Amino acid sequence: MSIVVLQLPDVKRKTEVRPRKCHYCQGETFQRWGGVRKPVRDSQYRSVQPYRYRCCNCQRTFRHYPAGVARADQTQRLRKLAAIYWVLGLSLRGVAIALTPFGIKLSHMTVWRDLQAQTEQLEKQRRWQPVRVLGLDGAYVQGWDKRKHPVLVAVNLGWSQPVAIGYIDEYNPQAVRRFLEPLVQRLGVSVVVTDDLASFRSVTQKLGVEHQVCQFHVRRWVGRTLRELKETVPKDWEWILVEIKSLLEELPPEGSRRLYELWKQIPERRVGQGQPLSPLSQVRALLLRLSEHWPSYRVFDWDKDVPWTNNGTEQVIGRMKMRSRTVRGYKSWSGMHAALTLAGSGLAW
Ligand SMILES: [Zn+2]
Asked: What spacing in Å lies between the alpha carbon of 29 and ligand 1's midpoint?
């Protein structure tokens, strides 16, 4: 159960604070030309009083607005209030109706444009906050499940906040790279945490960032593979399966070398084309794969900021999904994008 804390931006009717810089030329000395009355749409005020200033340097005039007000008629407080209503489950028309007790008339299209503007603004803000450890995971979102693939969500694991959302096929390395590369460059990411998909592995290698693979995922698929192999490998080789299991539980630094030694101990058997691999050949393939991937299993051991599972990402996604469940507007990607971004931002919680 979330506790709703409405923190709305403050709106001032007037400001006595003078502008610091000219909007046009960066000049710093002005003449005040008096106040003007600007009608606004707000939960409290009908109008505010910006001042007009003339720049002594370039002679141009501009308006200097009080806090919470910009060029648009809607104040920042009203925009946020509308976004909260929407995230809490009202339709665009419902938001417009809910604002009428405040004496405010807004069209549902204005509500929609404001929601998108806020989504963009949130994303822009996040693009300037450095992220050292980034979690990535796919999310199946209610109302969107019928689509071909999940939504990919990138999470700042330092602050447990979503950073970016993309409608991207996580199995396609080119698509993952197009999503991840600008994030890595802009945010200065040094470690990416994911589950065990090959696409994530190849992209992190190409981008030159460290890769921590979620150990819950690895244990799950390796455990399943080992149980299946136990039924089929010759009894005198069963000890290898036991050793693989304990290596994965302990994740020692020398694990990669040890797995490689085990790999060398199993004789290679050539099989004809199209024939299935023998159980022992399957063990060899498993040993080689684990040995090669070993460094990506244990970044957390030498970098204390890195978690050993991707649970943190899954929790953030779960929170976003829960909070955006009520939002109407999943029919379009922009609607869902706005819903997940605004709901995940801690906008109203
Ligand atoms: Zn100027």
From this structure: 8
